[in-house]
TrEMBL record:
The keyword Zinc does not apply. This is Glycosyltransferase. SUPFAM superfamilies: Nucleotide-diphospho-sugar transferases. Belongs to the glycosyltransferase 2 family. It comes from Almyronema epifaneia S1. Its EC number is 2.4.-.-. GO terms for molecular function: glycosyltransferase activity.
């Protein structure tokens, strides 16, 4: 089987990465570990390579965002081995004991898979990511199964298959089969944070690549453990990225509806005293409008 790499983007997350690397029986699977360091002054991250011998730290010298950090790691791995499997994994996650074995079975059984996501639960054991959907008319980007089944609708929990096709999968836990790409795949670096996984999957799906998600939940995610400390920036990035994604792949109706909704919500948050949230959304809207006019994002 092709060489298996784990790719983690670090931003002051060394303690989380220690927990991740101690989960999933990772030491028994002969995997290479690549940590892209987006925090130049995080000296603690350098201690990881002393503990984990198969670990390489790639320094960026600046915060490139999630997509930019992943691109740096993917490019490095592609130069080493253009046929490798690369598991992009958030630092604030842990793997189930059978996670790696399950994913390897999927990749062996379905060699044409280009992008494989895993179902993910939150720290309370609740479903957090199940299957990615995108409605280009409304702009809805969803990731949980409906709790009801329509007549004639396929039951996605069927045990007859290890995977099910998905419109997109979460970058929190996403495996790239490099052998299915003629050139190194890359995230759109105009998206600093949020929706870059949806864009990545949508772009390559439209090129005919197979995108799927595991039937089993294999990963536990401490939701917003790393980004929840910065609510204004989080909303600003999420707002810009959603509008940017819809500009690329949604119908005009979707962009209009979402822009109107976000403007209304920002205004309502302002008058109800939720100033930090209102400012964050407005900054994201303003950044999108500027980018749309000039091709440059500007700073938040």
């Amino acid at each position: 089987m092709a060489t298996f790499y784990f790719l983690v983007v670090n931003y002051y997350s060394t303690s989380f990465i220690h927990k991740l690397l101690n989960s999933g029986n990772l030491n028994h699977h002969n995997c290479e570990i690549i940590v892209v360091n987006n925090a130049a002054d995080d000296l603690e991250i350098k201690t990881l390579s002393k503990v984990y011998k198969s670990l390489t730290v790639i320094e960026t010298g600046e915060n490139l965002g999630f997509g930019g950090g992943c691109n740096r790691g993917l490019s490095w791995i592609y130069q080493q081995n253009p046929h490798a499997y690369v598991w992009l994994i958030n630092p604030d996650t842990t793997l189930d004991a059978n996670a790696i074995s399950y994913v390897k079975r999927c990749l062996k059984k379905y060699p044409k898979l280009a992008i494989l996501g895993t179902r993910i639960r939150d720290s309370g054991g609740n479903a957090w990511f199940e299957i990615g959907r995108f409605n280009p008319w409304s702009g809805a980007v969803t990731h949980l199964q409906p709790r009801f089944q329509l007549a004639g609708q396929q039951h996605l929990d069927s045990a007859s298959s290890l995977i099910v096709q998905s419109r997109w999968v979460s970058g929190c836990s996403l495996v790239v089969n490099l052998s299915q790409f003629q050139i190194c795949p890359a995230f759109d670096e105009n998206m600093f944070l949020y929706y870059e996984d949806s864009e990545f999957c949508e772009r390559y799906r439209r090129q005919g690549k197979l995108v799927a998600v595991t039937q089993a939940a294999l990963v536990t995610h401490a939701v917003s453990a790393t980004t929840g400390q910065y609510p204004r920036l989080k909303l600003a990035h999420a707002t810009f990225s959603k509008l940017y994604f819809l500009k690329k792949y949604g119908l005009p109706s979707a962009l209009f509806l979402n822009l109107a909704y976000l403007l209304t919500r920002s205004f309502w948050e302002r008058i109800t005293g939720k100033t930090e949230m209102a400012v964050g959304r407005w900054q994201g809207i303003r950044q999108f409008l500027k980018f749309n006019l000039t091709g440059r994002k500007g700073s938040l």
